[in-house]
Every structure is written in C-alpha cells, then in structure tokens.
Fold these 3 entries.
Entry 1:
Amino acid sequence: MTPYSLAFYMDVVTTGTVLGLRPEDSPERVAEVLGADFGDNAYAYGLCRDHGLVEFHWTRASAEGPWEGHHFALQVHRLTHRRREFLEPVLRERYGRFTPRLRFDKLRRLLGRRGVPLVEIPEDPANAPYYRTFWQPESGVGISVIGLHGEYRTPGDLRVGDVYAIRAPLTADEVAVRRERANRERAHR
C-alpha cells in the first residue's frame, strides 16, 4: 500500500484524472465530485475554479457560450502552507494525510515500479533552469519540479526536487513544440 497522498498523485499521473474527473468535464460535474466549497475566477471567456489543491480551467468561444474543459492543475506547492483549506475534504477522506512537500524522486521511483515512465521534456525558456518538466505520455500529465532555487523565481519553502504542480493534459503536440523550440535554441548557440 502506498502511503497517504502518494497514492493520490500516482492515480492522477497514471490516469490523467482527479477522482475520475477528466479535464473536459463540466463545472457542475467537478463540483459534484470535489464539493461546493470553491472559488471562481471568471471572466467572459474563461473560468478557473479553485478547490484548494485542485484547480479546473474552462474556456468558451463567446460570453454566452457553454464552458469547454481546458485543463486541471494540482497546485502541490500550496500544501507547504499547512492550511486545511488547501486540501479538499473528499481527498482527505479518501487518501488521508497529505505531506507538505512531494519529492519528485520518490514519485518517479514508485511510478517506475508500476511501469509508468516519466520523460523529461524541455522547459519553457522563461522558467528554465528554475523549473523542470516531466511528462507521462500515455496519460498526458505534466509534472513541474523545482530544478534550481532562485530568489523571486521559486517559492522559498520548496527545495530542489520538490514537485511544484501537476497538470493535465500536456499533449504530444505541446511536447513537440517544446522540443522544436529547444532544438532551434541549441542550433543558434
């Protein structure tokens, strides 16, 4: 048995879902599963629903149009604040205690034992070398990890090797764009 929050993170990375919720699920469906305690950051063409650790994002083509799921993110870095409101009750009930930090090497090792590989992909130049991104190709999940501590660049309460956030989907097309950009940058050096 994998202890506490590690089982949750492994489920998310392996399936590309949060408690079975997919990135394309509706705001109503997300509230049905995660609960009605959330904050909305809404504007005409976008909605970010913040449940604490978990955020879901939607977009729409017009101010009156239906919401279309865009992605979800686990804001793992928030847990370092050790405030209960940053963890959804449904997650606490199902998975128990969550540690304030998630060490990437431990997550990667446990996923590897289950045959779930993580591939490092080029980081956005604006974030490198302070962050590194790892991708699970089958589930389309991206994991952002602290790569180098930098004042005003990375949270002071995270260490090198801590997971900052987990996001889905990170598509093969997005990964290809990052790789092409990195190849162009190397060619111009």
Entry 2:
Amino acid sequence: MGNESLKAATVSIQIDLSAKHQTFEGWGTSLAWWANVLGGWSEARRREIVEKLYSAEVGIGMNIARYNIGGTQDADDPYLDFGKAILSFQNQDGSWDWSRDANQREIVELIRSLADEPIFEAFSNCPPWWMTLAYDPQQPDGAQGATTGGIDGGDNLKPGSEREFARYLVEVVRYFRDEYGLTFRTLAPFNEPVAGWWKHRITKQEGAQIRPEQQQIVIREAAKALREAGLSDTSISASDESFVEMALHTWNAFSPEVKALIPQVNTHTYNDPSYNPESFMKAVTSDGKKLWMSEVGFENGAHPTDDPYSMAGAKRLAQGITRDLKTMRSEAWVYWQAVESNVSTWGLIFAPFEHNESESYSMYKQYYALGNYSKFIRPGSIIVHNDGDKSLAALDPAANRLTIVTYNDNDTESASYAYQLQGLDSVEDAASLQVRLYRTTAEEDLAELQSITLENGSFTATAAPGSVTTYVIDLVTATT
C-alpha cells in the first residue's frame, strides 16, 4: 500500500451485503450562481467545466442539477454580489421576458447532453421583488436589494402573495417543459426559510424568511397550480432548511394534509457535525417520504487562499458524505457551488468570476475527493451496512459491484483496516476477486494504486494520513 508512516493497529470493519438500506439516486450541484457566470464563457470552456462535473467518463459523474428560479429585478442590483442577481422572468405588470437567465440555461442544456439520465430540480431563493415585504414602491430604488432578505431579517414574502408566488414558480416549470422539453422532477419553493440571516441589503444574495405557517400556504397553492397546469411529472420538495434540526422542526410543524403534498423532503446539512440526524431521518421516512441532502458546502482553508494541495475541505466533505448517507440515509447528495469565485473557498473548482478574460480555473481537492464517491457509487446503488466509523459501502446491483470509501482525517497517522465482506455466497470463487484502489491525498488526485486480492472474503489496507480511498470490487468470478 505504499510508504505510509506510523503504522496503526488494524481495525476490523464488517461489510454486510445483505443488510441493505436506501437506494441512492445520485450526486449533483446547485447551478446558482456559477452557471449564471460560466454560462457566458466560450462554448469550449463551459463545456470543459460541465464535462468535469457531469461526465461519467472524463469527470466525476454528477447527474443532479438544481436550477435556480430568480426573483431579482435588475442584473446590476448594487446589493447583490457579482453573478448573484438571478432575474425574475415575470415583471410586476404581469408580462414575461423569457430571454432572461440565458447563461444558466446554457449550462442546463450542456448538462442534458452530457449527464447520464439527469435529474433536474427547480428551486427558489426568494420570491420576485414586488412580492417581498422589503420592496418599497414609494422609493425609486425600492426594488434594489428587495430580494436579499426582510427588513431586520424578518419575513420577506408579502402576506396575500402566496398564491401569486406559487403560480410564478409553476409557470416557469411549465414553460421549460413546453418550450425546452425539460421536466423538473421536483419544485422546491424555499431555501433556508427559517435561518434568520436573510437581511435586507446586507446578505448580498437572494434570500427570504418564510416561516412554516406561510410555507404551508405556498405549498398548497403550488400543488394546486401543478395539477391545473397538467404538470403531473413534477412534484413538490421542501423545505431546504439550513440545519437538520431546523428541518425536523419545520416538518413537524406541517399538517398531515400538507405533508401529503410533499413526496420529497430536502434538507441542508450545515449543522454542527456532532448533531445526530437519525430522529429527522426516522420522522421523514416513517411518513413515507424520499429524503435528499440538497445542499452543503465546505471551505478549503482560510479565504482567500486557493491552495490546490489543501485537504481541509476534502476531509470535511468526506465526513459529511459518510454521515449524510450512512446515518441520515439520504437518497441524494448535492453540493452547493461546484464552481466558486474568489469570494470564498467553498467550490470544487476555483474560477474567478470577475476580470477573468482567460477563463482560467483550477481544481480544489474537494473535487477529487467527491470523485472518490461519485465516480464509483453510481445512481441505483444500494447503501449497505458497515460498522466502520469512517467508511461508506454501496452495492451496485446493475454492475454487480461493491464500492467501499474510507477517509482518514488524521494528518499525521495512517490507519489500518481489515475489511470482512459478508453475504458473498453467490460468488463462486471469492478468492480470485481483485480490489481496485483509488486515492486522493495532498499529492494524489484519484490516483489508481496497485490492486489487492480478496482472500476468503476479506482484505486489509492502510489509509494514508489525510486521505480518501476508494475500494472497488467487481463481484464476478475471474473465470467468467
């Protein structure tokens, strides 16, 4: 396994292929706001970026994209950071301008052409500006910053506008289906609606506090509008709260009638890593709902450093994936900004949004670490039980393949693991199976290492300090 330092005592990990949990739908990213900028890059360059994200052959194989339905009036709104002004398709007078948001739509079309069976979700960060409580029609600049949040962080959907807001979202979904042939599988009307940090002319991005009582009105109206528009292939997802504990509180606040209108529950996982999401998972799954981790992001060290060798964000990403899929049993895992500018280090890819005529970009280690999971745990895989704290295991029934991903977040000490596979009865000659290895460290980017032979259903491997390692086993006999 190489020259790893400081050998540790070997820890046994049991992988039980017969103990099956959720079927996994895939990996993805939100398109706000990077698609609004990179969609204006040259055709070759934007295709290159999308391939790195969505191609299963040359990229990391994402298949989920969250399209942002905007609400802002002016692309040059001074209270929104560069690229974050996503324009409303509808005007205050009721007219529509479907030429808007061309850049984000360019990226959507590329994803459609490159991803394997892509899943699209439409989501809103804020209602259109004239429906917000922050909008002041008495002032000539009253629409500026109206979509950044409520006054003093208060509510930002005008009471009585719930129906209009819901119908605006549904009309966008209908137009995309009828004009572009694109069906959004789900419509998410809210984004972190009870977080409390959406503050008028302060937040620098679209956001709106909408509390559970008002959320329920919007959900009822959106469900009705979807039915009336004949959009039977689009359903509602909610509520995309910031923390799992917020998501549980909001879900418990909904009436049974409203819960029945929501087949998919979305949550973000920016919560304290020590928080146990099991109670939320049980509440959602006991109600028969699909559960998505629809947004999270991780900084790669201190801003504005764009260190291509730092594993800080990659290790946190691996911790998050393992917790979200193994403990919360999420059926999808969606990153926030796949491409980030020099306002933060959250991206998988670093690309300056402004003054970047050369369209330059570089890769963070988060990109390769996500690839350790997404390139091998493919849509349709089933998460199976394993008792390792830092390991995730998934069985792909279509490919008859087992994938194990283990991270080591210790920067100085290696970790030795003995993996014991249970439930291999159908394999005629387990002794002849090979384990393929792929590793990301500060020096390696999804590097393929020397394979290991599976002996009597087990193998031992060492996780290097500060690493994410993938083990792939094709569960077929060597002689077939």
Entry 3:
Amino acid sequence: MALGKLRAVRHAFVAAVLTGALLPVVSTGEAAAATTLPAGFVLRDTNTGTGQYQLTDFAYLPDQSVLATAKNGRVQWVPTSGTPRTIATLPTREISDIGLVGLAVAPDYATSHAIYITRSINVTGGFVFRLSRFTVGLDAAGAPASLGGEQSLFEVPGISEVHAINGVIPAADGTLWLSIGDNGDFTKVDPGALRSQDINQPYGKIFHLAADGKGVPANPYYDAANPASTASKVFARGFRNPFRMTIDANSGLPVVGDVGWNTWEEVDVVQRGSNQGWPCWEGNHATPGYSTLAGCAGVPNQAPIFEYQHGTGPMQGNSVTGGIVYNGSSYPAAYRGSYFFGDYVTNKIWTLRYDDQGRLTQAPENPPVFTGVGGPVKFAAAPNGDIVYADILSGNLRRLSYSAGNTAPVAKATTTTDPDTRTVSFDGSASVDYDNDLLKYDWDFGDGATAADAGPTTSHQYAAGTESFTAKLTVRDPLGLTGTATIAVAPGNHTPQLTLTTPGDTAKFAVNQQVGLSATATDTEDGPLTVTWTSAVRHCPSEATCHSHPGAGGTGASFAQPFTEHPDSRMEFTAAVTDSAGVTTSKTYTAWPRQHRITLLSTQPAALSIPVEGGVNTALVTEGASFDVEASPLGTDGVSKFTGWQGGPTDTTWVVTVGTSDLTLTANYDTPIDQRYNGDAALRTTLGAPTAAEVTDGAVHYRAYANGRLYWSAVGGTKFITGPVLDKYVAMGGLTKLGPPTSDTASTSDGAQFNDFNNGGNVGSIYYTAATGAHAIYGEIRKKWAALGYGAIIGYPTNDEDGTPDGIGRFNHFIKGNNVGSIYFTPSTGAHAIYGEIRKKWAAYGYERGLGYPTNDEDGTPDGVGRFNHFSLGHSIYFTNATGAHVIKGEIRKRWAALGWERSYLRYPTTDEYVTGSVYRSDFQGGYITYTPQTGAVDRPW
C-alpha cells in the first residue's frame, strides 16, 4: 500500500504541475530551493506570456524571436523586445498531462512560414492525439499574427489522459520525428501498456515520418506495399513516455528521456529498431507487476545509457525531461559536446557524454551542479548555442549563459548630414554581437548631449557655431560588455555621396567565382573623391558565432575578388570615402555563397560527419567547395563494418567537391549478416538470394532469403534457419518465444533437422523429422532430454512444450520408432522421462490425474530384470518382459518396499492393485499382498 500511495502521489503531482492545479505541493517541494549554478553561469529569463504551469514548448524563428505554446492551446509570439502576444488559440483538450504540448519550426520557415504542433483534441465520442502542420500568417510589419492552413499528418485515438503525443522534430531532409507515450493507466498494472510492444499500435513509439505522414523506407518495419501503416512508421518501440527528444547531429539517432513508473527514469540513445522494454522493463530492471505478464515473456530490453532512481536525493528525481547536446562555443570546454537534460519535478539539470555508438562515456555530475533551476519541460539552443529551457513553473524561458565566455559586441556607425538644419542622422544598425545577443545603444553626440538606450538609429540637431564634433556610440549586451565607435561629425558640411554598383542582392557565388563591384563618390565641398576598398571573409559556423577575417583592399573605381573557399562564409566588400572635413561615408555589399545541401546516409545506423561543419551529418555547403566527409569504421551497433562509400572510395574518409546540385553520399556497412553471407559461398547456395531488407528487432537483426533467414545477436552470433524449423520458429513468435538462434540449422546422425536458441539464458530447440514434424522443446524438459542423449532413447518431440490440464505441469511427447515417450516437469518434481510400457500404463490411469507426476526417469531395477517409475502421489509402475507393466499403490506398495521390493520373495507384480470384496490386493510372481483398514497390509506366498 505504501508504494502504491507514493506512486499515486507522485503521478498526481506530475499531472497537477502540468495542469497548474496543485500549487501547495509545488510550494513545499524543491521548486522553492535556491538556484545554484557553476561559477560563471547566469540565468536570463524571458517572459512568454503563457503564465505559470502553462508553458510547454518553444522554438526560435529566423529573426531570433520565439514562438511558445501553452498547454491550453494558446500559441504565443515572443518578440526580441516588447510584450508577447497571442497569435492563435487552438482547440485543445487540456486535462491531466495532455493538451498542446509540442511545437517545431520547419527548417524552411523563412520561405514556407510552416510550423508543426502536437496536441490533444476533443472529437465526437472521445478525443485524439494529432500532429499538424500550420502556416504562420504575418502582419504588415512581417511579424507572426495568426495560424492557418492546418494539415493533419498523424492522428490516433486517445485512450488515457496521460503519456500521449509529445514532441516533433522536422529534419533538414524533410522528414519528421515524432514521439508518443504508451497512453496507459499509471495508477495500476495496465495490460494495455503492452501496446508499446506492438509495432501495429501507435503507442509507446518513436516514429520517423515522411513529409506526408507516411513511414520512411529506412524504418525497420517499413512495408513498401503499405507505407501508411503504423508498422511502416515505427523507428523504435517499448517507451512509457518519451518526453522530449533530440536528434544527435553526428549519428542521426534520437536521444530521449523516458519517464518512469515506480522506480527508474532513463535516458536512451535510440537505435533503429530498438526495444526499450516498457512495460516489461523499467530502466535496466524487470518491472514488478508487469514482467510476469504473458505479453512480457522474452521481451528484450535495450539498456539506457543512464538511469536514476526516484526520490529527492542529489542523484534522484521523479520525471526526466530529455535535452540536447551543447554545440556552442561560449561555455567552458568541459561542457562542449555534453548532453544537457533535466528533471522538472526536482528542479535540476545534469550533463553527460556518450560516444558515436551511443555508449555512456561520462556519467552525470554527482551531485548535480545546476539545481533549483525551475521545472524544465523542453530544452533548445539559443542562436549562439546557449542552453535554453521552458520553465513550466514560472512560464519563462530560462537561458543558461556563461558570463566569463561572453564576447564583447562591436560598435559600428554611419552618419548623414542635413547642413541646412545642422541635423545629423546616426545609424548603428551595423553593430554586431558575436554571441547574437540583443544590444542596447547609447549615443554621445559630442556637444554635451546624450541619448541612452535610444535604439540603433537616432538623429541630433547641432547648434550653430562649432563646425566639428566627435560623436560616440556605445553598444551594450545583456551581460554588461560594451563596444564603442567614434564618428567624426561636421553639422554644416555635406556628407559625401557614394554610389555603389553591385552584382545584386539576389546574386550567389561559387568558390573562386569573381565578385566585381564599382563605385563613384562626389562631395559638395570637395568634388570627386577617391574610393577606398576593403574586404573581409565573414565566417559563420552559426549566426551566433560569426567572426571576420580581413582580406585584400584597394583604391579606385572598381574592385574584384574571387569568392572565398572558406566554409560557412560570406564576403563583405566595403567602399568608403572621407571628405576634407573628416566625414566618412561607406557602403557595404555582402556576397552570399551559392549553397547546396550535402547529406550523409548509411545503410546501417552509424556516426557520419562533415568535420568542417562541426561534425554534423547534413549541412549547406558552398558550390565548388572541397572538404572531407568521415564515416565511423563501425556502425552504432558496434558490429556492422564500413565497407566503402557508394560510388566512392573504400576509405572511411572521402574528399568531395560540391557540384551544382544537392549531394547525398551513402556509406555502406556490412552487418554481421552481410559479412557472413558475402563471405560464405556455400551459405549463399543454401539460402538463395535475399528477398527483403535486413530488419532490426530490439537487439537482434535478421534478413529473409529465398530459402531461409539469417539472424544475428550478441548471444548467438550469425546463424541461419531454414525449412520446417524456420516455419515453426516464425509460427511460434520467433524471438519473443525462443530468442535468437545459437546454431545453424543442422542435421543429426539419424537425419533430424534442428536449431538451438537462447532466450535470456533459457536454452531451447526446434527439432524436425518427417515423421514428427517440427516442434519446440526448451527449459528443464530440454535439459532432461539432452541428459538422455537427445533423440537416442526416446526419439524426437511430437508436440511443442505444453501445459497439463491441471495447470501445474509442462510436457513434451516423443517417439522413437513405435515407442512413445514423454518428459513431464513440475517445479516440485523436476523433469522426468517416462516411456514404453510404463508410459502406456500411466496413460491408462489418466496420466498425472491418476498417479501424479513421475519423480524419476524410467530406471532399471538392481537385479537388471525390471524397469520402473515412481510418481508424486506415492505410487509406482514396474515392468518386466515376463510380467508386463503394473501399478502398485498405497499401503500395498509400502509393504512391498519394506520386504525389499523385487528382491523379496514376492518378486515383481503381476497385476495392478484391484479390489475383491472389501479387500485391496496386488498379485506378485511369488505371492500376493492384501490390505484392509482393519488388518493393514499382509503378504502371503502362493
């Protein structure tokens, strides 16, 4: 009861936090704890306008403003400065932990204005979970103002009001990643949670979808004939509530936080086709109450890379929120490349590291160093890479910045002068902050007048008298660093007029393509002026990390330079003139690269990278650029081997040059199945040609061929199954029932075909003969059969292991020639063999319902003449060629035993126990024994 109560309280708390209904519990929990951060880190809050207990998700737009969602269906636009506003309120079922919970911005938002939203919706007769694509409507100023054009891409019925549809991630290749929970009842052991294990049910899954909502061909259960089927969409299964997911930029694999039930929270690097084990497993542990369900028999468990236990201790928590890998440059080196994730109930954030194969290489900090941080329910990256999270407790976005790594902004300013009014217009909008922070603009006009926080543009009228001043612009970032620029001002002087002729704002350039410009300049006071040219390469691994490399310069009416080969770069060409009063005018043209997307794919999940692009596996790259791409020698499964690039070298590194269109490069990996099939000519003859793609089912891979299948597992290696043995294996449920094969299909000396299997340490086999068919034998019965020499004594099984009518025992029947045998097992008696005439007699008495279960294998008597079995109800059957098989029971059996069994003068029984009058009697070769309650058992010779 105590555990159940604690579990109910915990889940009530989780649900209530999401509905905003349990304020007293929040106020007494860890949410009130003081914030602690590592030295140098600060939290910067942005109000989303959603209010407390409503903020569920957010995403940055290209202009650095934000869209944020509220659980009750509101979609907020949060400008870079100013007040958030509601742009839509969508119909939403808001209860427990369902509502509007997921938001993502399409990679092509700048042109499509498309976003994706996941939410719960009431419909006639119930409710559904839906993923939709919307189009953002803009106002006259170009700001988000509405949502329209809803297109439903994925919709499933709602069953329970927890563990529902979660996050969506639109990938650069146009596909979508989607997560959804088991939709089970958390208050009890709910057999419905087994939906997570069924690839034909859309719950407890990670999906990989095409743009139209159908499955992608690379999915492990994809059916080309039915791409819209649930199975075709499944990438991985066995999740309870995969709350928040990211796609690792290196391996292309999902990384999720899966919310636990009784005891464990987990973080998973999700392999293609993996099974995370829920509800049969929670973390690395069999789930009490679930693991004994029939549907959990043989369910594998892909171990998480990290798990933590429920509680309030430093390394404990109650509801994991999956995070992201930090790929910025302002944090200390110890955090770069680390995965940040949190627990929103206990208000903390950890980091960990994992390798290219999804294995933990650095455990989370113990104790955690980010605590009292609010309730993180979604992590994302700011434009400069800073970790930002949605704090549901406050309704704020909280940005984790490193003040010691902050870069000072650079101030830039130009002027234009109206000498008739002595008014100078100042423009500081070219100022930059390499952390991509919003800047404040403070102006000092040089005549004693100032304008604090006046924005990037302003103007000032100078009094008559003095003809020159030195003005100054100071720009400030949110962490207090500043940059300054001085500007020569002559209020009575005309500003030089500069005309710049460029290739045009829409022009794009390939590597080494000439960028040519020209300019003319005149000044009212000085006449024609000489133009001075400067150039720079602006390298921008991200917009937040841009930095300049000075280039060539010159003077004259024209200037040209070849476009840079520097990756992720644009070129800036500035024409400048200065008149005799010291007033400068300049104009800058930015030449943008003509880019194409390069995408790295692999035939098996593997870590692929474009090193020059920071190790990601897809990027926009300038036409004509040459760079290297790299493939890991091993796939993420640790066993698939790189064999070469399709159309390229066999080395893992390939130097490529981008042509005039998008480029997709595919790395070939031979799985262990490929390796064996390609390296074994005899096996290819046996199996024939492949008939389907390789399938991943949890930790096991298999592939179908014309004449059989090849299976690979860590426990069995690569083994093939063919013929009737394969037919039986598939009919029984294959991996779920018996586990993967540990032997090839082989033949015994007397012609039987068989495969051995291993299901979590339980060894089983399927044996086939033309006379018996194919049947499975495993566990204790198989051990007994093996101890008897397999088919040597009692032959081969004629049925699959089955249960006895009383529900206690298990059995297999066998046949060797005309001799029928059996092995029966119960936990109390063990497994024992019974066959021949003794078995016939036992069968005549009703098997276990008459005499009980055998307690020994059929054995020979000490005199070498007879055979016998004892049984659990205190009876025996003895057999000799001379006497046949007979049952001896109860008190008569005890008397015979006391006399020395068959070594006594009575020797062997010649009848079963029978009743004559009111007397029980058994006859023997040397006499008989009678029994009545009055006399007891009495023996007499003939």
